[in-house]
Amino acid sequence: MKDNSTEIWFKWFYKNWEKFSPGKLIENGLFPSQIAERFVNENQENLIELANKFDNKNEDALEEFMKLSESELHVTKYFLKLVQLRKIK
Asked: What DSSP assignment string belongs to 41-80?
């Protein structure tokens, strides 16, 4: 696929993720893994179609983004612990 396949993926993902309303699902008591599973199930055909268009360069970019996202999650978890510790003092 062309160099912009990563960009196409993110535009597609965030557009569909927003429509999916994950915040409402969290409010209804679903766990993050359940929300992700529902999203994948509802969008499986599109996900497969997009995945088949990726080349190695775009795959590397997606892996890099995933590592950065995971790092952000760890920072957010740390910050949440600090906020929770503040309540104990």
From this structure: HHHHHHHHHHHHT--HHHHHHHHHHHHHHHHHHHHHHHHH
User: Could you give the number of structural domains in the chain?
Assistant: 1
Token pair 């429509």: residue: 19
CB 8 within 8 A of CB 61: no
What CA–CA distance (Å, rounded) separates 9 from 58? 10
For residue 20, the one-letter residue type is: F
pTM for the structure as a whole: 0.77
Give every CB contact of residue 44 below 8 A, 6+ residues apart in sequence: none
Residue that is written with structure tokens 């999916």 in the block = 20
Look up the domain containing 10 and give its range.
5-88
CB 21 within 8 A of CB 34: no
Give residue for tokens 């912009």: 4
pLDDT at 1 over 50: no
Residues 6+ positions from 50 with CB-CB distance below 8 Å? 5, 8, 9, 12
